[in-house]
Amino acid sequence: MSITEDEARKVAHLARIRVEDAALPALARELNGILQFMEQLNEVDVEGVEPMTGVTPMRLKRREDVVGAGEMADKILKNAPDAREGFFAVPKVVE
């Protein structure tokens, strides 16, 4: 499969990327290179290979799930643009 300049223009339009007409041949070549690489990857035999999320076997660092006092309303409300009586104050939207 080969990408033409018209197809490269369409891909750029769909990606919302402005590409000058002079740069379309280079974009088409790059897209063709990507497609050729994908065709090479399709030739690799992956039968029996387990899927993985990364190249190194690592466990995610986790913290203890501990219930805290949660008494930090003052700190949270300090960031609010308008707080009254210990609550966030928002504009009235229903009459």
Automatic annotation (TrEMBL):
Biological processes, Gene Ontology terms: glutaminyl-tRNAGln biosynthesis via transamidation; regulation of translational fidelity; translation
The enzyme's E.C. designation: 6.3.5.-
Gene Ontology MF: a single term: transferase activity
Keywords noted in UniProt: ATP-binding, Ligase, Nucleotide-binding, Protein biosynthesis, Transferase
The keyword Ligase is annotated on this UniProt entry: yes
Superkingdom assignment: Bacteria
Enzyme class, broadest EC rank: ligase
PANTHER family tied to this protein: GLUTAMYL-TRNA(GLN) AMIDOTRANSFERASE SUBUNIT C, MITOCHONDRIAL
Family: Belongs to the GatC family.
SUBUNIT field: Heterotrimer of A, B and C subunits.
Function: Allows the formation of correctly charged Asn-tRNA(Asn) or Gln-tRNA(Gln) through the transamidation of misacylated Asp-tRNA(Asn) or Glu-tRNA(Gln) in organisms which lack either or both of asparaginyl-tRNA or glutaminyl-tRNA synthetases. The reaction takes place in the presence of glutamine and ATP through an activated phospho-Asp-tRNA(Asn) or phospho-Glu-tRNA(Gln).
The protein's name: Aspartyl/glutamyl-tRNA(Asn/Gln) amidotransferase subunit C
Organism in which the protein naturally occurs: Paracoccus zhejiangensis
